[in-house]
Amino acid sequence: MKYEFLRVAASLCCGVVMVLNGVASPQEVRGADPAASGATKVKSISLFDGKTLKGWKQLDNDDMSGAEVSDGALRLKVGDPITTLVWTGEELPKVNYELTMEARRVDGADFFATVTFPVKESTCSLVLGGWGGGLVGLSSLDGADASENETTEYVEFKKNQWYKIRVRVTGTHIQAWIDDRKMVDIDYSDREVSVRIEMARARPLALSSYQTIGEVRNIRMTPIAAEGK
């Protein structure tokens, strides 16, 4: 009994010390309410439900004949020469966000899922498979297209293969990945960020194909911390 009394007394003393020092016991941690901790849950915005074209409008084509939903993917049909879908849904972040999606070329030999995205009060495009089928880069930086600035890269895009696309925009940088390969990492602080003339009305977000059938799915935008690069 003596030893049991000492064990209980020691446990109580430890608990008092933890409270005085502002440290929660393991039981308190396990039972804590996350909402009470002040932590905020990041809201990821889904931009495609996999079933309808809700939230999208085809540029210069009110009947949306250039797009359809096919097996859970948003399909961009062959344009004349370009098919562009513009986001018309809820307001999106203009900076400090990540845009993610999966895209593939179904047919054709040019860009199949070029994405135009907000950069503060401007917009920029990440070209995917342009200029003959393999060019990747930003259009435009200081007035230079993706084929003419330092973001120019080439990728062999295989038909019907899905690629994971990620674009990150912070207060200073634009970054982009295809699968796990970083394609773009630009400090745009002292740069002119813009789009080609044909994409000037594609605000705030758009998907485009050029005489090519492309498909996109799992399109999401997620805010990130302002201090993130």
For this entry, give a set of tags.
Jelly Rolls, eight-stranded antiparallel sheet, 2 domains, 229 residues, 2 helices, disordered N terminus
Task: Write a structural description.
Mean pLDDT is 85; it is low at 1-40. The protein folds into two domains: 2-37, no CATH class; 45-223, Exo-inulinase, domain 1 (Jelly Rolls, Sandwich). The strands form two sheets. Strands 1, 3, 4, 6, 11, 12, 13 and 15 form an eight-stranded antiparallel β-sheet that branches. A seven-stranded antiparallel β-sheet has the order 2-5-14-7-8-9-10, with no helix packed on it. The protein is globular and about 40 Å long. It is built from two helices and 15 strands. With 229 residues, it is mainly β.
Brief sketch in words of this structure:
The chain has 229 residues and is mainly beta. The protein contains 2 helices and 15 strands. 33% of the residues are buried.
